[in-house]
Amino acid sequence: MEEGQVRNAFIQALRGTAAPLIAEIKPFSPEYGDLLRGRFPVEIARHYVAQGAACLSVTTGRWHQGSLALLQQIAEAVPAPILRKDFITRTVQLRESREAGAEAVLLSAQLLRRQDILRLAEQALNQGLTPFIEASEVTQLDGLHLPGGSVLAVCNRDIRQQEKDNGTVDHSLALYSLARGCGAELLVSASAMRDPHDAVRALSAGYDAVLIGSALLMAQSGVEQTTASFIQALTMR
Ligand SMILES: O=P(O)(O)OC[C@@H](O)[C@@H](O)c1c[nH]c2ccccc12
């Protein structure tokens, strides 16, 4: 495929569905501990896609016990576009993400200065990667102008508190207008969604997609049934 054709596969997949869910594979959470509980990440990825998740997110950092090799295995096993969820700071990490099979890369406003976010976003776009900029504070969004082709996610948690804060979807709702004004092609509400009702609230408020990890991985009823119930609620909304 030509570089131009694959560009924005991540955004297209979310635009082209009634249930715009990015389902995350995160082996370990600082808040909840082991999220795999003996299951295989590739199998979880297959279940997510089979139940209708448009895109996947794979944590590749040591903090979440992921790796780039894990992302690559998943990319080879499923057709859905994948976001590399990691604390990317250097240009070289963009190419290595692409080579592992990622379609999108996280650029965190919790970690990067604005000028570095914009520089890395342009470099990502030039390589056919979708920049997925994540912010969670007013100061990180105020006056931010993102290039076309980028995704902006409002994170409901403060990642600097190691995901141990009590974030809720209300945070995304409060920041909606500000986030919408940043010029991103697609707006995502990410993290701390507990049930389908939270996800529906984010979309009803105007968000284009939701990103969910722990709630899908922790549910007693299993990944298949839980993903199906989120997809159904989003489709019916
Ligand atoms: O498990 P949750 O609450 O649904 O959150 C998913 C995701 O947003 C979270 O894992 C995350 C947010 N920012 C990150 C940065 C790196 C790695 C992971 C993350």
From TrEMBL:
Cross-referenced InterPro entries: Aldolase_TIM, Indole-3-glycerol_P_synth, Indole-3-glycerol_P_synth_dom, RibuloseP-bd_barrel
EC supergroup of this enzyme: lyase
Enzyme Commission number: 4.1.1.48
Origin superkingdom: Bacteria
Pathway listed: Amino-acid biosynthesis; L-tryptophan biosynthesis; L-tryptophan from chorismate: step 4/5
Catalytic activity, reaction form: 1-(2-carboxyphenylamino)-1-deoxy-D-ribulose 5-phosphate + H(+) = (1S,2R)-1-C-(indol-3-yl)glycerol 3-phosphate + CO2 + H2O
Entry keywords, A to Z: Amino-acid biosynthesis, Aromatic amino acid biosynthesis, Decarboxylase, Lyase, Tryptophan biosynthesis
GO biological process: L-tryptophan biosynthetic process
Signal peptide: none
Domain Indole-3-glycerol phosphate synthase: 10-226
Protein's name in the database: indole-3-glycerol-phosphate synthase
